[in-house]
Amino acid sequence: MALSSANGGNAPKGKAKAAHVNMMTDTVIANLPPDALRGIVRGLLGFEQNLTSHFHDLAAKYLISTKPASTLSDVFKNNETSIVPNSSFFETQSRVRCLMGCGFGFESIKTLTDVLQELSSKFGKDAVADKQLFDSLASIDGDIVQAVTAVQKELLTGSGSRAMTSSEQEILKGLRSTLSAWSSSHEDQELKFAFARGYTRLAEFEGGGSVLPQKRQIATQSSRKRNHISETVQLGSLEVPRMFAGLWQFSSPAWGTASRAQINADFRKHVDAGFTAYDMADHYGDAEVTFGQFRSSQPDSSEIYCATKLCVFGSVEVSPEFIDSNVSQRAANIEANSIELLQFHWQDYDDHQYVQAAKLIANHPKVQNLGLCNFDTQRMDELVEAGVKVVSNQVQFSLIDLRPTFKMAASCRKNNVKLLTYGSLCGGFLADKWLNKPAPNLFDKNMTPSHRKYFEMIEVWGGWVLFQELLSILSSIGKKYNTSISTTAVRWILDHDYVGAVIIGARMGISEHVDENLEVYKFILDEEDQAGIQKILDKCKARDVFAEMGDCGAEYRQ
Fold first, then answer.
1. Rounded CA separation 544/554 (Å)
2. Helix crossing, 377-385 with 408-415: angle to 10°?
3. pTM for the structure as a whole
């Protein structure tokens, strides 16, 4: 049936169609379960990255329009034995995390201060804390870390950072005073240092050093004798194990939160097992500071190595002062005179200042070795040809993402650059639990953005049926060496001569797979193993993945 306009003529077809679609779209949105809606939004943002800024703008408007009119109250309640979080605590925490992600760092700090003040008013000197409360304290501590990072980002300008206003300074002062008062009012060591991570991150940001007493004695004893891994690689002046522990968990509360004591205990367990090289970044929350405090307190600190990053995402003016400020901050954060490996990321290739920046970093007295992060072959070659000494490039590489084999490998061999690889387990898909399983439902509440990213890559690579063939051969090889699919997949990466090390995520204080990760050093793949894997790879569409995603690191610049 034709629609008519108010004056009796036919309505413009496009407008009528748009109105109809909008109404039906709104009906779908109104009736989708929350988990499904989240999955769809994540899919949209992954499909069209330009939507991200619009998403943040709308989320920010929502946060402004729903700002609570009154001060927080009843975030915690008393039960028979302790203080426990109320339902409003979790609602407030969700809001705080949204504030941090949408650029309202100071507002998130103010809200966290209110939460702490209410907790302090209800938690007397003789009160007892149970596990539930300690878990809540650890999550607040982690949120303080992220909130300070959000403040740091909020102050960034093209030429550095702007000065804080007097009201912004008062907000930080309020948090600092509240944290100090909490520490002073408790004798119990776990309670006294419950917010050590947040306090340290705040003090580091303000540049005054932490006045909160720190537990500098960190246990160095473990249930195992210190293990020395024999499989190492030379990265410039460094000889390091061929497996790094990645600390990107510190960049978001989505990975979980843990107390400083739990994190330090896991650090020590990793070091005792032989994992002495750690990958972090300037934007991974308090990863640098936490690592630095742990390492500097250890008797074997000289055998523990730091690979951090200097990342330039926006428009800046490169100068010796700009580079010196960033490098010096990295060194200060890790409590060291110099950085063993500083990895350089530059977002905008159209801005050719990256050559000048790389030269300044490589020649800086506090940088022992320069690595790159997510550079493509063309720009890596450009730096090498400009005389920059590059020892490594951190890129994605797995049995599904074979892009380094097309261009990067030849350049690495020619220029003696080693790859530090991440994503080598394909977001967890290269694991026993996916063998003989149907393709995942990407709208399941347990599916993360990482799962979606890698599943879509699997689809381009060859699909779920071929992926099952790959898992099957990896499982057979794993049984031969009494190990897992994951370990076999990592071993395949390490057996490439241009790969220096594989970076495996370490969720310090939350979960660990130390013993499983050690198994990768117990075997190498023989010709039969390699042939079996290659038989599957010959069927895949690796070149299609390369064509769709571009060379290494291109996915971050689309």
1. 14
2. 20
3. 0.81
